[in-house]
Amino acid sequence: MMLNCSQSLPHRHSFPSSTPRLSTSPFCLSLSFASSPSLSSSSASKLRLSSCSFHDASINLNPKPKHKGLKVICSKGEPLKVMISGPPGSGKGTQCEMIVKKFGLVHVSTGDLLRAEVAAGSDIGNRAKEYMSSGRLVPDEIVTAMVKARLARKDAKENGWLLDGYPRSFAQAQSLEEMKIRPDVYIVLDVPDEILVDRGVGRRLDPVTGKIYHITNFPPENDEIRDRLVTRPDDTEEKVKSRLKIYKKNAEAILPIYRDILKKVDGNHLKEVVFKDVETLLLHVKENEETEKLVVGSDNYLVRPTSSKESWRGIPTRLNNIPHSREIREYFYNDVLQATTRAINDGKTRLKVEINIPELNPEMDVYRIGTLMELVRTVALSFADDGKHVKVCVQGSMGQGALAGMPLQLAGSRKILEFMDWGEYGAKDTFIKIGSIGAKEVDEEDDMYILVAPQNAVGNCIIDDLKAMTDAAGTRPVVLVNPRLKDVPGSSGIMQTMGREKRLEYAASFEICYVFRLLYYAGTQYPIMGALRMSHPYAYELFKRIDESPGKEKYVPLASFPERPTGEEINDAFEGRDR
After folding, report:
1. C-alpha angle with apex 68: 367 to 452, nearest 5 degrees?
2. Where does the DUF1995 domain lie (predicted)?
């Protein structure tokens, strides 16, 4: 009682690189998926993992497609509300100036507020002055009241606001929450400690002009200025490290309140480079605020990704109807995204996704390459939204001379990724870059890598390049989407035996974070009998498809497995035998 997996031969194809829309009929691509071991079946009633073919349909590469038959609810946009935080020396003040200039936000700094209120002689300013004159800290309730009053002014309500370096404690953050003051995004400038210490210790003050220099990064214009520069009393290494320690303690305290909207930006670059990342991030937040969409499908399940297992609405129906609706595709894109996000948040760094809905089944003679590209784009954009630099990689040509080439199933995929619409806020080439597989593709600024269907080809093996890349990536996450890393015959027609055991061991080192496979009777592609699904960190779940009435169906849970079930275990569950 075993599972039998069929595999179709790849077809020749052509790809017109200049067109933004692709039709699947002129070519048949098959990006291979990690498949179960090929097993025999002794009964026609046994199940196998397979998929159905589909009819000709065009693929729209725009990430904002029209949802036919879906209900879209839009909320009116509001001005940007931003909090920004960063340790001393992170360049936060400079970034605030650039943000205000670009977006026209009202800059709100508690230090400026205190000085302004004291100078104005207001009631709250006089109360604050009593504490400041005696060298005591101004109580949270006074500072928070000033912040609330400033954000309530007309200019802040109309233009939006940038709250600089506040709140600094959990109590302050909690007070803002109680007052319903919450930003759209909480930006944290991330700079290594050793760089921050160097920036602080190397800082010099010109007592004549008040201008700040740095002995290495921003030296004075001439010797005359250099000779009169002084070191400020609080720029010693001991005090710089002390301020950094206090900042980290405060930042950790408020993290639980803003974790869901926190976006880290690498601040260890030139100010223009850092601001490019900040600008891209804020443009995306602004875009979402202006046209936030909640898509409700015809089956009343949400297309928007959710974060918990309890919110999962079950397997969508009519999966043998090809082409799939936009609603069904986005359902699976988000299902994969949730599992991948949970796995990475759990500290997993070597991950594998296996999904073979009919439009993504490599064992058929046709499939929609655009569906796979859209899946990759959804995952990449989501992590880019969190401020991560993502590199999407497709393997290039392998071998040399007459043996040079690449798997037919991957031909043209790099061009599709390059021509795809990656959104209006410029994620591509800033937070997302396209590359190939190999150690030379690993850059210091990369935070994670998504590899599109890496696979071996006859006479060539991708695993050496893949291993070199993962070694260079270190602890940064690497996600393989539908890999095929089993050994294939060499150019001589025999299996590649040199180092085969180590290659297979390396291929098995990637943890599966998502699996979805449809189940059919052996030798058939219709009807669907059930499905196998696993979404990290949960168990493998086996579902049976049931016809309720003409044109209606549903999937019901049949069994769960702590590990990936064998074909025999799946057959036993369908036939009601005890395991």
Report:
1. 30
2. 329-571
